[in-house]
């Protein structure tokens, strides 16, 4: 009998919300769009709240203001890419120009 253990890649990262209005609808939509491009399970953690990054309502529930530090936790085969993409998205101000 052969046992095969599937080891999933677990990756963590973080970003700071830099835009003046925090994580309102537009940046939250960009986060969800980015996260859904990956097969990995991606979660965002802020204060005591942990939400699915692929859920617009979940991301909006964080109610994160400018300066908030958001942790990213991803589990899956493409977890590295998911975390890196979300950090890059945050550094580009969620592709939003005011």
What are its keywords?
single chain; about 100 residues; alpha+beta; four-stranded antiparallel sheet; 4 strands; disordered N terminus
Task: Write up what this structure looks like.
This protein has helices at residues 25-35, 56-61, 79-91; strands at residues 10-16, 41-46, 49-52, 69-75. It is of the alpha+beta class and 98 residues long. A 4-stranded antiparallel sheet has the order 1-4-2-3. The protein is globular and about 35 Å long.
Shape: globular
The helix/strand series, from N terminus to C terminus, equals EHEEHEH
Percentage of residues in strands: 15-25%
As a whole number of angstroms, the C-alpha radius of gyration is 14 Å
The beta-strand count equals: 4
Order of strands side by side in the largest beta sheet?
1-4-2-3
Unreliable stretches: 1-6
Structural class designation:
alpha+beta
- Residues in helices, as a percent range: 25-40%
Number of distinct helices? 3
Mean pLDDT: 91
How far the N terminus sits from the C terminus, by CA atoms, comes to 61 Å
């Amino acid at each position: 009998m052969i046992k095969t253990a599937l080891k999933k890649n677990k990756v963590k990262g973080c970003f700071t919300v830099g835009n003046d209005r925090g994580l309102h609808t537009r940046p939250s939509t960009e986060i969800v769009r980015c996260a859904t491009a990956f097969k990995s399970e991606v979660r965002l953690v802020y204060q005591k709240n942990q939400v699915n990054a692929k859920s617009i309502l979940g991301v909006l529930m964080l109610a994160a203001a400018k300066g908030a530090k958001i942790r990213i936790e991803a589990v899956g085969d493409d977890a590295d890419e998911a975390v890196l993409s979300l950090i890059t998205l945050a550094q580009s101000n969620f592709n939003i120009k005011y």
